[in-house]
Amino acid sequence: MATQHRFPADHQLSARMTITIFFIGLLYAVFVAGLFAAHISVGIIVIFAGGFLVVQLFYSDRIALFSMGGKLVTEQQAPQLYGVVSRLTSMADMAMPKIAVAETDIPNAFATGRNQKHSVVCVTTGLLRRLTEPELEAVLAHELSHVAHRDVAVMTIASFLGIMAGMLTRVLMWSGMFGGMGGNSRNNQNNSGGNIFAIEMALMAFSALIYAISFVLIRTLSRYRELAADRAGAILIGNPNMLATALQKVSGEMARIPSRDLRAAEHFNAFYFAPALAPGVSLSTLFSTHPSLQKRLDALAKLDAQMRQQIS
Amino acid sequence: MGLFDALLGKSKVAQPDLGHLFALSSAAVSLQATENLISTLRAGVCFKSLDAQSFSAARSEITGLLTLEDGSNAAATADSGVTLRETTDRYNYNWMVLNGTDFDTLVTRTHFVNSTLDDHGFGPLLLCSVFGFRPLDAKKDGAASTYLVYLFKQGTFYPFVPQAGERRNNEIELRIKNELGNELPIEPQLDRWFPMWDLPL
Fold it and tell me: Looking only at Cα atoms, what is the longest distance across chain A?
């Protein structure tokens, strides 16, 4: 039996991701075309949004660590963590990431950095306290898969459209308020001011719509990428059940954490292992960055069955 | 990893490279010449733990063929008995520890165990193989003082010289790196030379 066939590719997941990426691309095209049609020069917005993108991409590791209070640890400070990660990276033939620990009781982990060389894997002390060693290894394998899939770069670039559209909406809203008032006084000379105002309003609605659609698409992509990382991580450790156990433990425990702490961590969900949602908050699945626990467990159970079938 | 794999969140599973194992034979000769070290004739194969059920087919093939080989040449030497010991270490990796009558046999057997595991689809779960070496003048069954670790996914070796209290002698390790550099592909990234305490061989 050829080794490559032991872990069949998840074509369905790939197909869904392709479709999502296609629609994000299409939305880019529609947005740019719309701006051209309105004869709007968007140079400044592109420069601003582009600058934002570059900063986010190049400083993602530092920004993420700073906002989560993660501190880089040396091999002497966390020999066990280094031991687990170095073995996993050797097995997967990846570069060794930097390792950080965040002093917080919320059990979670995240990976960040634009590529393998600049990646950081951060775990919280809450996670270290709650999980057994094999479970911790499963979570780290999931995070390393995010690094291998270049999820930070892909998601940052995918979010670029949303940032741009959101920025344009706001700029037009301000210029609509101030420019609109100025336009009224000029209206005495000719009525082109009113025309510009109408175009601006239409464009604002257009970019707001683009923003809304891109928001949903990016969240969809994020959920698919979580499933992909679950899958690759489970394959790396050769045991989907261990990741499932860890997921259940983390998600089950999290429901009991007071909501205030949780909300403080919420803006950070996209790169997290399990989202830190306050209990009782029921976001529609359309808007969440992570698939539901049940979906992730089902996918892992399916993978486990596939792996068993391949062996027997 | 290609652009499309990155876009689709697919990572290729790293496959092991068993090709360089046989280069060890000549390296062992140099190791004896330069460092006065000889093989303890024991080696360990380290891979990610598997549940017993999926592993049993691969294991029975390994034990079957090793004992068959053992039976055929048992007459030649008195102490050629193959022992195959299995343990789990503290990082939850499995070890298959085996022996050989001479170093070449040991390398061949280690290669056989690895390729069998690979054939059964466990290639992505292989971590490393470790060969023990001891000073020539130490007593025969003495513990190894120096190890050569073969990383499957990188296809490279590195020396590991543990000392008491979970310390390692980097000086000797770097010296061995220089001495064996021509014969073995030595792992160039030093941060991959991870220590392996409490080796079961």
Answer: 84
pLDDT value, residue B69: 61
C-beta separation of A250 from A130 below 8 A: yes
Does A153 sit within 8 Å of B14, measured CB to CB?
no
Tens digit of pLDDT for each residue in A199-227?
Answer: 778 888 888 888 888 888 888 888 898 99
pTM: 0.78
Kindly report the nearest CA distance between residue A25 and chain B, in angstroms: 12
B81-107, pLDDT tens digit by residue?
677 888 888 888 889 998 888 899 899
Tokens 């009782």 correspond to A280
* Of residues A1, A14, A91, nearest to B153 (C-beta): A91
- The DSSP result for B33-75, as a single string, is HHH-EEEEEEEEEEEE---HHHHHHHHHHHHHHHHHHHHHTTT
B84/B67 Cα distance (integer angstroms): 10
User: A25, A161 in Cβ contact below 8 A?
Assistant: no
> Where do the structural domains in chain B lie, given as residue ranges?
21-66+73-192
In CATH, which of 3.30.565, 3.30.160, 3.40.1350, 3.30.70 is domain B21-66+73-192? 3.30.70
Mean pLDDT over residues B108-137, rounded? 88
Interchain pair A1, B119: CB under 8 A:
yes
CB under 8 Å to B167, separation ≥6 — which residues?
A: none
User: Any bridge partners for residue A184, and if so which?
Assistant: none
| Mean pLDDT on B36-52 | 85
Sign of CA dihedral A305, A311, B2, B4: negative
Nearest to A121 by CA among A131, A133, A130, A113: A113
- Count of CB atoms situated within 10 Å of the CB of A291: 20
pLDDT digits (tens, 9 = 90+) for A81-130: 999 999 999 988 888 999 999 988 778 888 888 888 889 999 988 888 88
Residues of B in contact with A97 (CB under 8 A): none
CB contact under 8 A, A91 and B6: no
Three-state secondary-structure class, residue B100 = coil
CB contact set of B18 (below 8 Å; sequence gap of 6+): B111, B114, B115, B118, B152
3-state class (DSSP) for residue B111: helix
User: Tokens 């590529």 belong to which residue?
Assistant: A115
**Closest Cα to residue A79, out of B60, B59, B91, B40?**
B91
Residue B172: C-alpha distances to residues A1, B146, B198 (Å): 42, 9, 19
Average pLDDT over residues A275-299: 63
B167 to chain A, closest Cα gap in Å: 11
